[in-house]
Design goal:
The structure is a homodimer of 228-residue chains. Chain A is an alpha/beta fold. Chain A contains 8 helices and 5 strands. The first copy, chain A, has a 5-stranded parallel β-sheet, sandwiched between helices. The longest helix of chain A has 15 residues. The interface between A and B is large, with 42 and 42 residues.
Chain lengths: 228, 228
């Protein structure tokens, strides 16, 4: 195994999995992979993160933050069983829909930065991606830039946050992934997280994913609950 | 109990405890108090945080992040038993001494911000304080400003980080605390954390604390291991 030269935050969704393969195959990086277990309803994504990390022969740190984030993230439809994951139609144009997890990305990047500092690595990659139809403030170019402004103040070990796909659509990311042989069967997006019965096809991330596959002209290999 | 209208991060050291009393007694705030348990050698400080939070009749959330930060913070003399807490003389002029904990403050502020968002509070107070003789990048005006630039991007619940003591010396803080009746017996600073045998008197934070008390002309009421 090559020495680690960056950190990659990988959820197991199609963006971060594509990023991981892109780092290894296109940029010739050897990332330490960090995955967060945070009471997400779609925690089946972690199995997908494990699959790709293992298949690429990389080290994998799964950080279990369930206990500390149970209350902190309880206002999100992604974690709270009492809040239904919304249909895509209800979040169109919402700048911060119920699927937003309070400050999740800043928490995850901060923890990853501590890992990077302690392990003498100076770059963290994450799969932030532009959202055309609804939005999260913590997946934007402005967010990445502002976080880097914080990190740059570190006097000995400034960590650089890299989000190579931040201005790409999901279709762009899928095209990259197809060109480098990503196995999308082993990725999970649906916020409802029911891998046995299939992805719902109607939540915001399913809608985006299905649109990307349709746009690129490829059939999404994951199981869906209903015909889409 | 009044409704909570801000969050205060309180370690149990003299700066954050003074801040807590200042918030309640001077600014008439009702903070929810958050304390972090992160494998710090001086975890006795948590008992002091509990004392003041209880005496002020405030709600207290102690976030146990030991499991997730054990490895991440392992390069710091504050947490790693194999790294000795340095003598003040060895860190003079060091912009980031061994007592620095990798990205700790950004992690803690990020978690506190998630708490604030979920509980509909829009301000977080923390006891950052200028360091004259050695330094941490994450207790500076620049850091607070940069973190606020990140938080301001939040589209529905921007959280403001407030550090009212950021430009004060420890002497200034002590004077404020004395004027509002803070019981400094129930504060703990020494990084070595041995409350039974007493504070070491020579680590960076002991040195700063002792200097402040001497400067203000008050005897520090906590036990010290040796005459200072």
């Amino acid at each position: 195994m090559q020495p680690v030269n960056c950190v990659a935050i990988v959820s197991g969704g199609m963006d971060s999995v594509t990023l991981l393969h892109y780092l290894v195959k296109t940029l010739s990086k050897t990332p330490a992979v960090i995955t967060f277990d945070y009471n997400q309803k779609h925690s089946v994504e972690i199995e997908c993160a494990k699959y790709h990390t293992s298949s690429l022969n990389l080290q994998h740190l799964i950080l279990d933050v369930k206990n500390i984030t149970r209350d902190l993230f309880s206002s999100s439809a992604l974690t709270n069983p009492e809040i239904n994951v919304p249909h895509i139609d209800t979040v169109m144009g919402d700048p911060q829909p119920p699927t937003y997890v309070p400050n999740r990305n800043m928490i995850f990047l901060s923890l990853a930065a501590a890992y990077a500092e302690t392990h003498n690595v100076n770059a963290i990659y994450y799969g932030a991606q532009i959202h055309d139809i609804y939005g999260y403030w913590d997946t934007t170019t402005e967010f990445v830039s502002a976080i880097n402004s914080v990190m740059s103040l570190n006097r000995k070990n400034p960590i650089q946050i890299e989000a190579p796909f931040v201005s790409y659509s999901k279709s762009d990311i899928l095209k990259i992934g197809m060109s480098i042989g990503v196995n999308y069967t082993q990725t999970w997006s649906c916020y409802n997280g029911d891998r046995i019965n299939g992805a719902c096809g109607t939540c915001p991330t399913c809608a985006e994913r299905l649109y990307a596959f349709k746009n690129v002209g490829v059939t999404d290999p994951v199981l869906y609950r209903k015909a889409n």
